[in-house]
Amino acid sequence: MGGYGDVQMIDENGLRVDGRGPGDLREITIETGVVPVADGSCRMTWGTNEAIVAVYGPMEAHPRKIQRQDRAVLDVAYNMAPFSTTDRMRPGFNRRSREISKVTKDALESVVLLELYPRSKIRISIEIVSAEAGTRCVGLTAASVALADAGIPMTDMVVSVASGKINDIVVCDLNKEEDNYGEADLPMGILPNSGELVFLQMDGDLSQEEFKQAWDYNMDAAQAVHEMMVEALKGGGSQ
Amino acid sequence: MGGYGDVQMIDENGLRVDGRGPGDLREITIETGVVPVADGSCRMTWGTNEAIVAVYGPMEAHPRKIQRQDRAVLDVAYNMAPFSTTDRMRPGFNRRSREISKVTKDALESVVLLELYPRSKIRISIEIVSAEAGTRCVGLTAASVALADAGIPMTDMVVSVASGKINDIVVCDLNKEEDNYGEADLPMGILPNSGELVFLQMDGDLSQEEFKQAWDYNMDAAQAVHEMMVEALKGGGSQ
Amino acid sequence: MGGYGDVQMIDENGLRVDGRGPGDLREITIETGVVPVADGSCRMTWGTNEAIVAVYGPMEAHPRKIQRQDRAVLDVAYNMAPFSTTDRMRPGFNRRSREISKVTKDALESVVLLELYPRSKIRISIEIVSAEAGTRCVGLTAASVALADAGIPMTDMVVSVASGKINDIVVCDLNKEEDNYGEADLPMGILPNSGELVFLQMDGDLSQEEFKQAWDYNMDAAQAVHEMMVEALKGGGSQ
Amino acid sequence: MTIPIVPKLLRAHLGELAANDGRIDGRKQWEGRELDVKHSVLPRAEGSARVRMGDTIVFAGVKFQIMQPYPDRPNQGGLMCSAEVRPIAGRHWEAGPPSPESIELGRVVDRGIRESGCIDVDSLCIIPGEKAWQVILDLFAISDDGNLFDAFALAGITALRNATIPAERFEVGEDEPLTLSKTPIMCSYHRVGGRFVYDASGREELGGDERIHITLGDDDNVHSLQKGLKGIFTADEFAEIMGHACDRTKELRELIN
Amino acid sequence: MTIPIVPKLLRAHLGELAANDGRIDGRKQWEGRELDVKHSVLPRAEGSARVRMGDTIVFAGVKFQIMQPYPDRPNQGGLMCSAEVRPIAGRHWEAGPPSPESIELGRVVDRGIRESGCIDVDSLCIIPGEKAWQVILDLFAISDDGNLFDAFALAGITALRNATIPAERFEVGEDEPLTLSKTPIMCSYHRVGGRFVYDASGREELGGDERIHITLGDDDNVHSLQKGLKGIFTADEFAEIMGHACDRTKELRELIN
Amino acid sequence: MTIPIVPKLLRAHLGELAANDGRIDGRKQWEGRELDVKHSVLPRAEGSARVRMGDTIVFAGVKFQIMQPYPDRPNQGGLMCSAEVRPIAGRHWEAGPPSPESIELGRVVDRGIRESGCIDVDSLCIIPGEKAWQVILDLFAISDDGNLFDAFALAGITALRNATIPAERFEVGEDEPLTLSKTPIMCSYHRVGGRFVYDASGREELGGDERIHITLGDDDNVHSLQKGLKGIFTADEFAEIMGHACDRTKELRELIN
User: CB of A207 within 8 A of CB of E221?
Assistant: First the structure.
């Protein structure tokens, strides 16, 4: 987190730089079927974030050493396109992307019914073509929708949202400016039907009370986003 | 192409910096059997270009995933030795070399009777030990000779030559100075017996008329080079 | 070798900067069983060098293409930890480490009874966590002890020591300052029971007479180190 | 890129269709697929485009960096063009270092734009010998149903034509549009069922043979050619393709102008 | 890292033990293994520590380099933290480029230290805009019998607390200790036999499910969280873990203070 | 490099030959193959040589670059030596990152030249602390029929002795020859059929055991040694080899002087 504490990001009425209240989400749109050659796909915009996710499979897992006799494996790649950021993102190996790919895979493997497809692989490509703040949440949420679009059975969809802290105030869904000056970020991956978690990260500085507030914001936001996901899968468009 | 149009490279008599007329080739020598441990080989000098090509195979294709049930595959590597250029060429990954390897492979696979050797591999190593201009043409032509030297059956040999444009005049077989200041380069891979093509690239700026002229220069030059190739394969030396 | 010949490193009494005589070794300690999860291990300090070696195996050799039908293969990796040197050592590919890994493997394969374990692999990890001078000798010697600790049968243990030249005087077991200003370094890998060699390198400048002197120092030192190795394997600690 | 097994049945089918002047999706030999071009679609890019040709979808994004001019060309900026085809774009595209296929894609598109001279590299100089703009064009495939070459080339030139030099962000003056003097356009042809067709789809590529890429400038000048894959073609075949390219590039140029 | 075959028998055994509130090595659910922490153990490092937790052994080493501050933060030095798990540490660790597992290890430990703000990056400035100290913390595993996360984090903060800035060697002043304003401590929990336990051993990791890592500061403030591996946990489970972490981090902080 | 299957029949045959003091190509134990050395054979290199030893053929090329001297040695230039054995050189050499074999090749040849002190690195300084020449020696194999070590070393020293410093091209003065004060020469020995032989051929290497490389200077001073591959040798065997090397290096030094 940036932590330049002296920039004022919340006005006297408790409103944020983009006019939102502390618990409000940015604008979100969800669309399926956007990668015609894939088995399932999703385009999600969230503020000026844009993620495109394609799902291929289940298909044969090769090389054979990655096969598991009793279940499918997920091959998850999170990637930022070179033009997705203010300073061009150089293609190639990137530790941050590797870590996000891994925790996203861990989250999705918790809900996909892997046992239905022994020895197979499901490939999930998450491409961030425009990045604001919270791309890992957008990518994970869009991946859930794309898996559903591909007809892959899951116990529940994962909804991922992040809350954070700015000017010592806990707020939901940091935007780019807030993220630059923010003091903490708590992304969670929530199962909306049970309130359980499959994904959790955090960095920065939160007291135990602030942590609880951020947690609650995420839980509420997850319900709201979940409705849009269901709508998009029904209708083919959420806006 | 460099395109510094204001340097005068053709004199009032239409002669070029090295005294050649517009349609003339640089001096060429061809020698076979120059890599004693290989199944076939060729050393070709063309101006101050020097290419050495070795052919190994047909041999077992491994790893098995590159095998084709119904034919042989060619494994073609074009490479410039570190001392082949004025500024030392650093060894390692190089996009230009990868592309030239690929189009050279595409050209040679068009003439080698691959069906005769199912599941096998023929390895063709093209090393440029001295580079002037037109190394891809020298490499492809020398590879044809090396394949013939190895006794690999082909429908025809490929002869590769390039014409270009300098001071708005179309000329055959650009040398180094001409290439630096030239305005276009058209390398072609020609089957001398039929006049058909298996290789074609071009960059720069040619009007449709200039393009036709360059094409014709290449067709004529291919016949001349082909005679030297046949001579070298008969006699063991063309000079 | 550094070769700054004008720094005086040996005093009027023939004593070296750390008080040793020409043929004396630095202080050495040897300990086994230091990597609890390994099949055999050794920690060796030698001056302020510290090497930790773990042995795993014999185990199945994979990928299968490295398997040998009639014997085991050794997989030896010599590596310097990033904090082992005055200037931080960047992790990753390093030609020096690759060469030392290879010659260490060559030396150990000369004594391990590889034929007892066809198609298998024995993995030997040599980590230098603190480097002074002579790390390759410490690593090779410690690897012998770790192999013995793992119960891997050998015809003999390898003892590796180096002698060198400083201020035109041949001395045994160069320390860091001596190595920086030294004029030659002769590391050898000796079988203490027969006086035969399995490892030999040298660089610098030694006359034939100097070479003989350095060779003899190494032979004598090997006997002394060998006693400590045997002691450590008997008792579990040599200090 | 994994090498897909070329289905013999598909090849045979494509051959039969060609014999009756047909194509697998009902198009004529020289007919392109439905085309949709949008520019300025990527908020973080200084220029961008999205091109859809049938089920092939690609993005192009332009970014700028400040570079030091090369010593021998102190008054010139530069252009860098790179193509990435990541696994999102299709089942046969794999992660890892750039494949020969994607290297060829990037270099052929790059040459068409660079060699046309449409970007005046002298105009990219900020302080001679010290600072100049480097234009970076990134081509990115979302869905590959064939003919990524033409999709990339069209998206690339469209993104460049709509790019803004971000001088304010770099504190070297005021933002201004990147000016292009020409509009090079690529047309690609694939041998399918024994004859060449324009704008091959994914299945036509799978069951076809060699391909030829032609980039022409405003006045039919040739800026770039490339023959790819195994195959032999005649001078007459090439002349026919070149004729079609002269017409088709004009149509496409008008479309994006 | 090779994927070990998860033995079903081991899972079943761990489940039975858990049902009776037992663990495979006899520990209680929230009990840590025997712990040994030594600092200043590496002669070439400017700060170092060796941590042994049961049969897990790791080193941490601190080195300093002089860097040019980033243009937007001319008065700040930097911290770089990297974790390496080489084949010495266990049969299942392999050579090669950093695995996803070791990348996660390094980044999670890094965040805990960095985000606590324990290092005052402004104090690392030597000449504003020109020279500043870069602190490099290298975490290195010798023997992996589980819970490398906590071992690395504890070795890391211990090495930093005992580090000396080598100003004399770099000829920019006199050596002085690196000062840390806080002591962030990590506690890790693993689901084994269906419930979470503290400080899992290697066999518990092998037969277990997801893990959760919590880094707390001096005043119980949360600085870093991470959930790893396949698995679902409830808010109540998390609250219980957090409660234990508040207590345990205090004990460990006292231990190294 | 692929590991060739060592043919037991070949080993047995080499053993029988050795028992009768014979070698597979009829040579005597200490006899070298026919040798051809040409210099100045590569137009783009500033120094070059081609060495043929039997069917082993290699090139060496020298290039110069301008480097900034290292801070602790402001008056010195540098030498870099690298060996490449690409697939052209033989069926068992493969493409890819440098193999342990080619790394060893390059480093052993490098040490022999560097440690002899034949290049006066002080003479490579152009402007103290600012500019100095870096000499780059590239060794490149064309045909590997055994003993690349000696072929590389001989080509390398020959290329260096015929190199010109291209000061005019870099605009730092007039061209002048690179001066060498010594002529280090390498001789390599391979255990074949149980005893050591000089200048092993490809088949002798394939069916042989360990090898020893010795680089001697003008006055028999030892500059570099290396033992490679699995095998045990005695002090007496080494003394015999060293004796031969003292004689043979003198012959070779005369040949290229």
Answer: yes
Interface predicted TM-score (ipTM):
0.94
- CB pair distance less than 8 Å for D84 and A82: yes
Q: Are strands F164-165 and C159-166 parallel, antiparallel or unpaired?
A: unpaired
> pTM to 2 decimals?
0.94
The domains of chain F are located at 5-256
For domain A28-233, give the CATH number. Answer: 3.30.230.70
Mean pLDDT across the stretch B152-168? 97
DSSP letter, residue F240 = H
CA pair distance D49, B16, nearest whole angstrom: 45
Q: How far apart are the first and last CA of chain D?
A: 35
Please state the three-class secondary structure of B43-62 as a single string.
EEEECCEEEEEEEEEEEECC
In angstroms, rounded to a whole number, what is the distance separating the alpha carbons of residues C34 and C54?
A: 8
- Any chain E CB within 8 A of the CB of A197? yes
E48 touches chain C (CB under 8 A): yes
Contact E76, E69 (CB under 8 A): yes
Chain B partners within 8 Å of F50 (Cβ): none
Cβ neighbours, 10 Å, residue E196: 24
Question: For C37, which of E45, E63, E90 is closest by C-beta distance?
Answer: E90
Q: What is the pLDDT of residues C22-63, one digit of tens each?
A: 999 999 999 999 999 999 999 999 999 999 999 999 999 988
Contact B81 F95 (CB under 8 A): no
Q: What are phi and psi of A172, to 5 degrees?
A: -95, 140
Q: What is the pLDDT of residues E204-238, one digit of tens each?
A: 999 999 999 999 999 999 999 999 999 999 999 99
In this complex, the chains that touch D, judged by 3 or more CB pairs closer than 8 A, are A, B
Long-range contacts of the stretch C4-8 (C-beta < 8 A, 24+): C4/C180, C4/C181, C5/C167, C5/C168, C5/C181, C5/C183, C7/C167, C7/C181, C8/C167
Quote the mean pLDDT of chain E: 95
Residues in chain D with CB shorter than 8 Å from the CB of A59 are 91
Superfamily of chain region D5-256: GHMP Kinase, N-terminal domain (3.30.230.70)
- DSSP code of D97? S
Domain locations in chain B as residue ranges: 28-233
Which of C35, C84, C130 comes nearest E88 by C-beta? Answer: C35
CA dihedral C60, C61, C64, C67 (to 10 degrees): -120
The structure tokens listed for C115 are 């034929």
| Residue carrying the six token digits 């064009």 | D137
**E125-127/E47-53 β-pairing:** unpaired
Q: Beta D131-143 vs D78-84: how paired, if at all?
A: parallel
Please state whether D84 falls in left (phi above 0), alpha (psi between -120 and 50) or beta. Answer: beta
CB C90 within 8 A of CB F214: no
